Amino acid sequence: MKKILQITLGIITSVGGFLEIGSVTTAAQAGALFGFQLLWAIALGTICLIFLVEMSGRLAAVSKHTIVDAMRERFGFPFFFFVLIGMVLVAFLVLIAELGGIGFALQILSGLGFPLWALPVSLVVWLMMWKGTFSLIENGASLLGLVTISFAVAAWKLNPDWSSVGASLLPTLPEQDKVKYGYLAVSILGASISPYLMYFYSSGAIEDEWDRSYIAMNRVIAGFGMTLGGVLSICVLIVAAIALRPKGVQVDTFPQAALLMTTALPRWGFYLFAFSMLFACFGAALEISLAIAYFFAQGFNWNWSENLEPSKNARFAFVYTIIILVSAVPLMLHVDPIRVTMLAMALTSATLPLAIVPFLFLMNDPIYLGKYRNGWITNSVVGIVVLISFVLAIISIPLQIFGG
Amino acid sequence: MDLVRDVLDKKLVDREQCDMGRASGLIMQFGEKTQPHITHILIGGPTLWMRIHPALGRASEKLARLWGPKSKEPVRIPWSHVETVGKDIKLDVVAKDTGALDWEIWIARHFIERIPGGGHEEEE
Amino acid sequence: MDLNVELLVGTTVYDANGEKVGRIEEFRVEQDGKSCRIESYLIGASALVERMSAWTLVRPIARGLRSRHVLSIYEVPWQDMDLSDPKRPRLKIAKSDLRHAR
C-alpha cells in the first residue's frame, strides 16, 4: 500500500515538476513557427529522459551512490572537475532563466518589470532552501506545479487534428527556415534531457534511502511520470501551433508567450499561464540550486542533506546561497530571460556527452550495479539520442549564431 | 586491492560515521631495495589541485594562506588508522581532531551562523 | 623517499632500453594488518579501460578496430620498477621480458 502511495506521489511530482521555462519556451516557439512539425523532438527527448531518470534511480538504489559520488570515485578528480565546471556553468545559466521565468510571471501579474522582481524572487527561493526539508521542496513545489495541467486542458479545448499530431511524431524537414528548425530541435532536446534532473533524482533517491526493493517502483515512476510530463510539453506545442501560429506570433518575448492560453481559455487563460510559469519555474529553480550544491558536496564529500539545518552542512549551504544570489544579478541588469533560456537549452544539448558518457560507463560497471547493469537497449537508446543531440548542436548552434 | 580503483577518491568516514572528505592523495614511501608502502592518506586542498596542474596547486596554497582556516599543511592521515576499505574507507579517528573539517567549521562560523536560521555547529 | 601516488597515475613508463612501455594506471597492493605494501604496477593503455570497468562498451569497439595496442596491460612487480625519478619512471628490465596481466 505504501509503495502504491509512493509511486503515485512520484508520478505526480514528475508531472508537476516537468515543465519549466526551457520546455515551455522551446515548445511554444516550435509550435508558433513550425506547427506540429517538431513534435518528434519532444517525443525523442522524453524517451531518452525516461531511460536516464530510470538509470539514475537504479544506480542510487543498487549502489547507494549518487551519480556524482560514483563519477568522482570511478574517474578520479581531474575528470570529475572538468565535468563539474561544464555542468555547473550550464546549470547556472538555466537557473538564471528559471528565476527570470518567475520574474516574468510576476511581471505580467503585477505590471512591475522583472528586473525589480529578481532579488526578491531569489531571496524567496533561497529561503525555501534554507528552511525547507527535501520532501517539502520536492513534493511541495511539484504539487503546486500541477497547475501546468492547464496546458493539457487548453490543448484539448482547441480540438487539434489528432492524426496530424500523430504523424508529426516522425521527423520531417521544413520547407524554409531549416537553420531555425535545427536550432529549435536542438533546444527542445536540451530542454527535455536536462542533466540537472538526473543529478537531482539520484540525490533524492539517496535522501529517501532507496534500496533494491525500489527498482520496480523506480521504473514505473520514470516511465509514467516522464511520459505524462512529455505529453504536457507536447500540449504546449499544440496550443502554440493552433493559437499563435495563425496570428504570426513568434514567442520571442514573454508577453507574447502569455497569449498562449487565452485563445483556448479566454477567461482564465492569462492567469493560468502566469501561475503555471510561476510555480513551474519556482520548482525548477529549487531543483537546479539543489543539483548544483549536490554536485559540489557529493564530489568533495561534504555533509549534504536538505534535511539538516544549514550549520550542519555549512559548505553545502554556502554553495547554494552564493549561486542563488549571484544568479539574480544578470536579471537585475535587464538580461532577457528568454534569450538566456534559448542559449542555455542549446548549450545543454552541446554538453550532453560530458554528462551522459561517464554515466553510461558507470551504468555498465559490475562493481556498482552487479546484475542490474544496463542492457543493450538502454545503452543504444541513450547513446544514439545523445549522439544526435550533440551532432545537431555542433551544426546548428554556429549556424544560428552567424545566420540569426 | 587496487589503489586507484579502491582507495583514491573514495569517501572517508570516521569512527562516528561522520563524512570527512575523500582520499585526494596517497603518500608512498620507497627505497632502493625496500618494498614501497603507503604511509599516509591526504585529504583535500592543494593535493587535489596539483592533480589537475602544479600551477593550480601552488595557487591554492597561496589562497589558503590568505583566507580560510589557519592550517598550513594538507590533512594527512597515517595509513595505520585505516580500519576497512570497502564502499568507503573507515578510519579509526575522530574527524574534528584531524583537521579534515576545518573548512566546514570555518564557513559555518564566519558565514552560515551569522545568517538568521543558520543554527549552530555543535559545541565540543 | 616519499612520493605522491596520485601524481604518478598516468605517467609514462620506459623500459631499461629507453623504449616506451605505457602509462602507470593502477597499483596492486597487499594489506597486511596496519600496513599497505605495493606488490605490482599495472601499465598500459587498457589498464585505464580496466580501471574504468568499461569492457562491456569498449570490447566490441576494440574488436572491430582489431586494435592490439588497446588490449595490452603489463603487470610489473615492484622490484622491477625504478622510481628514483618520479617524473620518468623506468623499468629495470626490457619490455620484452614483461608479463601480460591478462
How many structural domains of chain B? Answer: 1
Into which percentage range does the β-strand content of chain C fall? 35-45%
Which radius of gyration of chain B do the C-alpha atoms yield? 16 Å
Q: Number of helix segments of chain C?
A: 3
- Radius of gyration of chain C, Cα only, in angstroms? 14 Å
Global morphology of chain C: globular
Biggest sheet statistics of chain B? 6 strands, mixed
The helix content of chain C, as a percent range, equals 10-25%
| CATH fold description of chain C | SH3 type barrels
Oligomer: heterotrimer
Counted by DSSP, the helix tally of chain B is 5
* Low-pLDDT stretches of chain C: none
* Extended strand count of chain C: 8
What count of structural domains of chain C?
1
Q: Please report the two chains with the greatest interface, counting residues with C-beta closer than 8 angstroms to the partner's C-beta.
A: A-B, 26 and 31 residues
Give the amount of beta strand of chain B, in percent: 25-35%
Shape of chain B: globular
Distance between the termini of chain B: 37 Å
Describe this structure in words.
The complex is a heterotrimer of chains A (404), B (124) and C (102). Chain A has one domain: Amino acid/polyamine transporter I (Up-down Bundle), CATH 1.20.1740. Chain A has 404 residues and is an all-alpha fold. In chain A, 77% of the residues lie in helices and 0% in strands. In chain A, helix 15 crosses helix 18. The radius of gyration of chain A is 20 Å and the shape is globular. Chain B is 30% helix and 26% strand. By secondary structure, chain B is α+β, with helices and mostly antiparallel strands. Chain B has one domain: PRC-barrel domain (SH3 type barrels, Roll), CATH 2.30.30. In chain B, strand 5 and strand 6 form a beta hairpin. Chain C has 102 residues and is an alpha+beta fold. Chain C has a single domain, classed as PRC-barrel domain (SH3 type barrels). Helices cover 22% and strands 37% of the residues of chain C. In chain C, the strands form 2 sheets. A 5-stranded antiparallel beta sheet of chain C has the order 2-3-4-5-8. A two-stranded antiparallel ribbon of chain C has the order 6-7. The longest helix of chain C is centred in the middle third of the chain and has 11 residues. At the A-C interface, helix 4 of A face loops of C.
